[in-house]
Design brief:
Length: 166
C-alpha cells in the first residue's frame, strides 16, 4: 500500500460528482476480511435506504434499489479477493444494469482478472526524479540549504517512491 490508490479513487469520485457524470457516487471500504452484509448496508446507507433482512433478500432489495438509479458509480476500496457483486452483495452491472459502473482499488492484480474488470490501471511508485520533485514541492525552502541536500535525498530514498510517504 501507500502508492495512493485510495486518494486517486476519492479524487476521481469527487470530480465525477462535481461534473455530474453520475446521479450517485458511493464509496465503500471492503478490506482484507470483507463483511458482505456490511458492504451492502454501506451502499444502502449512502443511498438513504434502510436495508432490511440479510443474505439473498438483502442483496435482492439492494439490487432493486440500485436499478432505479440511471447512472451510479460504486467505488469499492481495498478489495483483496473476488466478490460476487451481483448475487451476494446485490450490485447489478453489465447487461443487468448498464448505468451502474464499478471502480475498485486492489493491491492484487489477479483480483481484476477474477472480477472480470473491463480495464485495469496499475498505480506504481514514483520514479526517483518524480519523488525528488514531489519532496521539493512539499519541503519548501528548507531544501535550498546545500548542507541539507544529502540528508534530503536520503529521506527521499527511504520513502521508496511512495507518494504518501513523501
Amino acid at each position: 500500500g501507500g502508492v495512493g490508490k485510495t486518494t486517486l479513487m476519492e479524487e476521481i469520485g469527487r470530480r465525477l460528482q462535481k461534473d455530474k457524470k453520475f446521479d450517485a457516487v458511493i464509496k465503500v471500504v471492503v478490506s482484507q476480511n470483507p463483511n458482505i452484509e456490511q458492504i451492502g448496508r454501506g451502499i444502502a446507507e449512502e443511498l438513504g435506504m434502510p436495508l432490511e433482512g440479510s443474505g439473498e433478500s438483502a442483496a435482492w432489495a439492494l439490487a432493486t434499489r440500485l436499478r432505479k438509479e440511471k447512472k451510479i458509480l460504486i467505488m469499492l476500496d481495498d478489495v483483496w479477493a473476488r466478490l460476487e457483486l451481483k448475487t451476494v452483495v446485490g450490485i447489478p452491472y453489465g447487461e443487468d444494469h448498464k448505468g451502474c459502473k464499478i471502480l475498485i482499488t486492489t493491491r492484487k492484480a489477479r483480483v481484476c482478472g477474477t472480477m472480470e474488470c473491463d480495464t485495469a490501471v496499475p498505480v506504481d511508485v514514483s520514479s526517483d526524479e518524480d519523488s525528488w520533485v514531489l519532496f521539493n514541492s512539499k519541503a519548501g525552502e528548507v531544501i535550498e540549504d546545500p548542507d541539507l541536500e544529502p540528508l534530503s535525498r536520503e529521506v527521499v530514498k527511504e520513502c521508496a517512491g511512495l507518494p504518501l510517504a513523501l
